Amino acid sequence: MMRKQLLTALLALGCMTYAGAEINRLVVEPNAKGAPIPSTMYGLFFEDINYAADGGLYAEKIKNRSFDFPTPLQGWNAFGKVEVRNDGPFANNPNYVRLSPAGHTDKWTGLDNEGFFGVSFEKGKDYRFSVWARVPDGGTSKVRVELEDPATMGEGQDKCAKEFEVTGKDWKKYTVTLSPSETVSKGKLRVFLVKPETTVDLEHLSLFPTDTWKGRENGLRNDLVQKLADLKPGVFRFPGGCIVEGTDMDTRYEWKKTVGPVENRPVNENRWHYTFRHRFFPDYFQSYGLGFYEYFLLSEDIGAEPLPILNVGLVCQYQNHDESAHASLNELQPFIDDVLDLIEFANGPVDSEWGKVRAEMGHPEPFNLKYVGIGNEQWGPEYTTRLEPFIKAVRAKYPDIKIVGSSGPDSEGKQFDYLWPEMKRLKADLVDEHFYRPESWFLAQGNRYDNYDRKGPKVFAGEYACHGKGKKYNHFNAALLEAAFMTGLERNADIVEMATYAPLFAHVEGWQWRPDMIWFDNFRSMPTASYYVQQLYSLNKGTQVVPLKMDGKAVAGNEGQNGLFASAVKEDPSGDIIVKVANTGDTAQELQIDFKGLKKKQHYSSVEITTLHADNDAENTLDNQEIVKPKVENYNADSITDMNVSIPAKTFAVYRFKK
Ligand code: AHR
Prior knowledge:
This protein is α/β, with parallel strands linked by helices.
């Protein structure tokens, strides 16, 4: 029995059971041999939706920096004599601007950039402004760059400024550092010709904070990457999602366009700018500044297996009902080559065609890619007939690469029932399942994977989130039900190889889809209740499943189980046993956690109890990030062999028994 010290501590906290209350006896077998937990088990899904990339994770502050949006001056406000020209130095981004003398001593030529929901900048930080420029007629021209606060009541709008000279007819890159005197969230960048004016050409105007993640020049936002790193994710899926497919062939995601010098990566439309008419963002494009090289690097930084998803020759099937919108079976070779070349880009030697590109970008060592997904939410024979030649080609050249196929957009039903057997027939290694479902679905899915065919393929729960009925925000109850459902993922770690909540990021002023795991504005970011659920699983994922039963049955929210869901794992080499329990009911439940088959001297000396609890509708906000947050308590005792504890109503708890 648990020793007196621990009993006293728990009683003092009101955690212990009271005489007469029904006891839920959870029997854990710490010495039984269970399935190993895959290192990839809990991971991340990234898509450029909700301004997750441009305007989010990608730290660039200038929108339409190369003037290559379909409306070339979108995001810019030009004044004086500004002309857009299209014979610039970067073939894939041909546009640039010519600034000519305003023609009067009191007039000016230049342009402002509005940034993403404003150009934000902070006092005490440095910003690297860079631009490609030339003087078309030769000689020298002077350019001034300012960070401005257009709404200031102070004397001057400029919060810092630098002037620099541009010389000669050849395009060159110029860089200056800006150190603002004030913090401004909705600022602007202003660039203009200094008098006496000489015509100048400007291309690829860029502004990055110098304190990006790992200080990289084409860098990512520190606070956002840190939040990902803090999740210790096992896998990182990119670049989506629907943007893999595109609304049409021209707008599908093509990874080859996203590598090499950033100045020459072409702009692509972002389908999320028009997907929802009620949340319409006509300025939402993909600069590809955050491209496949950066995604691989990020996966490496945060210790996650990279999992790229590539186009299977189908554009979005929701948006296209005519076969001619897709690539036909005899047009698939370039798509198949994209997959094979990507594997070479990630893993190939530096003297291979694509390995060389990787090496030239700064990473001669391979990225050690192990998985590739082919197709996003595809369905029907139009998918499987296309997938087949991809699988053959990858197997022939890269037999060790694991292939992820799709089970379509639905968690069950006609397409799902067609695709799973097809994935078996095609011998996909994993099947990507998606489920954005209401509370009732999550409550009923505790046993979802218990009876899946163990012969495979394995499951990749590649996009999921509880969408509260009538409230699509990150309220606590949705996160609690995700936690409950995840006990079933964990218990079935022999068949579930990875799971990624979706979507990952959302800008508070630019979202199209919610709930999302992490919200941010231009300065701040905030973990949601769902973030904490993911983190509690990931930091406590253990190395091996151990059986946990109540009355001889898995605890999965079934009848007579009092709204409880539970799972248990062992963590080696520490030997800790971690029990996760979600109480989805409206009343506290008394738990008795018993260890079966404990050997003499195999007792635990402390328990760390982490609980996540809040009101059903509670959610964190950027201003108040403490509303939903895990609470940790520690109890020590000489020798723990079991534990009686009360889990409050609507609570997710992680009990870590330490040796
Ligand atoms: O996560 C948002 C979208 O949901 C994804 O792009 C798509 O795969 C799914 O429909």
